[in-house]
Fold each of these.
Amino acid sequence: MKSTVLRSFKKAHAIGMFVLAISLLATPVLMPSVGNAQDARVAKTMAALKDQTAKLGAPKIDGIDEVGGRDAPALYFGSTKMNNNFSVVDAVAREGGRGTAATLFVKSGDDYIRVATNVSARMGGGRGLGTILTGAPLESIKAGKAYYGKASVLGTPYVSGYEPIKDASGATIGVYFVGYTK
């Protein structure tokens, strides 16, 4: 009798430890995190930005253009150059409602330069053109992944989403950004 109870206890203990180990391993996968949590408003606005640019044609880089005081590769969707062109980002931001921001970045070496945006620069006003993507969103994009979560954009906190813009060959040539201030 004593050995049966002992075996049952050991079996229950082993099962309990197994369940505990599995739950600890599963927790990071199941918990919402910056990398996989998507805010519904951000997801809807990202879909709108990608839809608006897709209507123009496939993304590509062709030539160099001055943006915000620096030279940047010229980002195109179809035949429409996006550098210094605010029609798409402004329309998406209007559609997203108060506090919504939209930006297109182009890849330049290891940097991503803001070439079309409705985000204001803090100093001197105007649009934050020519500024560089930084922080956790940059690290995710460099790893080939989207970033969804909180991010500081030119000093303002946003609930945001960043996704890579890929050309016909699958190479990342830029970044879509949408977000809103709370």
Note: Strands lie at 59-67, 70-77, 80-81, 100-108, 111-117, 147-153, 156-166, 172-180.
Amino acid sequence: MQEMRRSAIDVVSILLDNTSTMKDAATGGAAANGINARIAGRVRALRADRGMTLDGLAAKSDVSRSMISLIERGESSPTAVLLEKIASGLGVSLATLFDDAEAPVDPVSRHEDRTPWRDPQSGYVRRNISPANFPSPIQIVEVLLPAGARVAYETGARDVRIHQQIWVQEGTVEVTVGKVTHRLSADDCLAMQLNEMTAFRNCTRRPARYVVFIATERPRAPRR
């Protein structure tokens, strides 16, 4: 089992190195455009479902109207930090923006159905593991954080409660929640709520891989 884990992380490490080179630009471009189009559709649909204008979402997320418009048209490669702000403004988890809205509802998620996404700023790679569109309050995401990488989410409290648990599979990750920093090694698990600034950092020379379990607690309808 340990050898399988090492093999998996080595493969993803090679993927990270390759996707940063010019020779892979042609083959990686189609995948990047595809997932950017998926994000664009999700942001548009979620905003429409909430009856929000571009100006309304801009005010709620602290992201400019022009940037949101570019993202909704698939003409931008937004960073994870930017997408987290938009997700916060929409009242959803970041993982929700990567769901394939056109996928059939199925309780089973297959390996070949998952599309990895690479953050253009930090270089981290994430994949939604949970079945897309299946009605569940739980989402599972796998993240590979490159050596020396750091990503800091600036958003605080949301209109809905979102709980996360970070389970480290390989390597070491420093997770800062508010003013408290937790150093997590393989098989450590951290429970947290998305109600203050959060940062993930890999201070080592090897990639770190962790799984994020997300649960959204919707507000209860008022009694009549």
Note: The beta strands are 117-118, 125-128, 138-145, 150-153, 161-170, 173-177, 180-184, 189-193, 198-201, 208-217.
Amino acid sequence: MYIPTHFAIDPVAIDELLDRHGAADLITLTDDGLLATMLPFAYEPSAGSHGALYGHVARNNDQWRKPALGESLAIVRGPDAYMSPSWYAAKAEHGRVVPTWNYVTAHVYGRLVVHDDPGWVEDVVRRLTAKHEAMKGAPVWTVDDAPRTFIEGQLRAIVGMEVQITRIEAKSKLSQNRPLADVEGVIAGLAARGDERTSQAVKSANAARD
């Protein structure tokens, strides 16, 4: 990934992005070519040297059966949005502006390990459920709210996936290269469009420049 210095993310922010993210695109290179699946992950920073991502796929998904060649890649996406030149103060000053795209992303590389074990998979399901139910707020659903025989049947239908992280490339492109007057226009433009999430991300990324 091309990461100019002003778009680099510090390790603390990377941990926060991975901890809070909902889902990622898991991409593996196999003898049959590239395979990809979008699936939720739980991030465990203390696993191994660089942490790990835990998730699961449907047993009928061939990706877990096809051995990954070399590193696998999980693409984690934060907020992203189109940036209109009409939001920039510079448009009125000199007109030398063009559209672009703001985004936050992390490319997580690692060794893919398949866990076809109901106990391991149940632990991941409980991790994911607890994480997202807590973010959702009350009322909270837990795995134990469903009949045990039903849960056991569901667990047999999925297979665990672990990405043992070897390296992470992350980028936060949120108008840090624009003059502050342009940044203010971006924040206001996004908010007016109803994209409060990206608006707040741009505001936070540029707060230290005020």
Note: The chain has a mean pLDDT of 95.
